[in-house]
């Protein structure tokens, strides 16, 4: 009996304490702010164009390089409205092996009065070319241009190989350069494959102030060369030299533009491996993103040339 008189008050106090703690928890929970929703993931494909497309995802294009002008500003067109990094951007390119860069032949022929080796460098290691820090730089030591290249559109054999060497010690970068695989004779590229083009080219037609700081990406679809209708030219395409690619969605006209030249057209093949299938070569004037397809150098058709160029002399090979 005496134990009951002692134990009952203790149980009541414990129950009362539990009720008070529970009430406090409910009040705190009600007062706590609702956690923000998780961030929306970036889109997997562009809903516009490189001419205003979407930023490339980190780590998605480590083979992308920039051909950058280091010539004295007095040799560049006078344009005080543009930042210096925009004025110095020239072309894109693709890292295919340590010390080797593929680009378009028309990018490897410098402007009048400039020398490619003395007045240009290759930059890599960052998606943002508006900042010089955090990028690795390379001097150009050998230049091999396809001997069959001729200007004009669509140009034949618009391909060049550059041998490059690092300038200074290797610095840590956000996007360490990583070579992209080349297709082989066994690589089967579907006729209507979805492909991706990347570059720092114009985001608005004929607007050199629209060059973006960050690398842009767009999804395209290959078009068989026999049915490739290009605005502004009747010259036939050669499937052994050219690839034709246009918007994958007619409602969302994707395209490359000026300043994207020489940059990579890539395809994700078996086992999710990325291949360099094309180089930005040519498009009808003043039509970037207007629905007309663009022309890309067919890399698979130049594999033998690439190997010969590595071993051959500098110049037209």
TrEMBL record:
GO biological process per UniProt: proteolysis
Domain Peptidase S1: 50-311
Record localization: Secreted
Single GO MF annotation: serine-type endopeptidase activity
Stored SUPFAM superfamilies: Trypsin-like serine proteases
Alphabetized UniProt keyword annotations: Disulfide bond, Hydrolase, Protease, Secreted, Serine protease
Lineage: Bacteria, Pseudomonadati, Pseudomonadota, Alphaproteobacteria, Sphingomonadales
The protein, known as: Serine protease
Residues covered by region (Disordered): 30-50, 240-265
Compositional bias ranges of the Pro residues kind: 33-44
Organism field: Glacieibacterium frigidum
GO CC terms: extracellular space
């Amino acid at each position: 009996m005496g134990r009951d008189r002692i134990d009952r008050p203790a149980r009541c106090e414990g129950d009362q304490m539990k009720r008070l703690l529970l009430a406090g928890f409910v009040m705190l929970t009600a007062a706590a702010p609702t956690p923000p929703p998780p961030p929306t993931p970036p889109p997997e494909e562009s809903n516009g164009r490189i001419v205003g497309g979407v930023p490339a995802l980190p780590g998605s294009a480590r083979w992308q390089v920039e051909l950058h002008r280091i010539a004295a500003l007095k040799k560049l067109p006078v344009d005080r409205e543009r930042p210096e990094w925009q004025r110095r951007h020239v072309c894109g390119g693709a890292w295919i092996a340590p010390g080797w860069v593929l680009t378009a032949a028309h990018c490897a022929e410098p402007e009048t009065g400039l020398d490619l080796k003395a007045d240009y460098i290759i930059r890599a290691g960052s998606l943002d070319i508006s900042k010089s820090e955090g990028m690795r730089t390379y001097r150009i030591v050998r230049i091999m241009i396809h001997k069959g290249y001729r200007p004009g559109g669509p140009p034949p054999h618009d391909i060049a190989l550059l041998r490059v060497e690092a300038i200074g010690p290797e610095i840590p970068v956000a996007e360490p350069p990583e070579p992209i695989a080349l297709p082989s004779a066994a690589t089967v590229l579907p006729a209507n494959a979805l492909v991706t083009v990347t570059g720092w080219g114009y985001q608005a037609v004929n607007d050199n102030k629209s060059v973006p700081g960050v690398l842009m990406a767009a999804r395209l679809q290959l078009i068989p060369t026999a049915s490739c209708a290009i605005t502004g030219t009747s010259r036939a395409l050669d499937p052994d030299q050219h690839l034709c690619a246009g918007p994958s969605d007619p409602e969302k006209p994707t395209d490359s533009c000026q300043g994207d030249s020489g940059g990579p057209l890539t395809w994700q093949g078996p086992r999710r491996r990325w291949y360099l299938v094309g180089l930005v070569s040519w498009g009808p004037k003043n039509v970037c993103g207007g629905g007309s397809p663009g022309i890309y150098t067919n890399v698979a058709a130049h594999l033998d040339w690439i190997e010969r160029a590595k071993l051959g002399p500098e110049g037209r090979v």
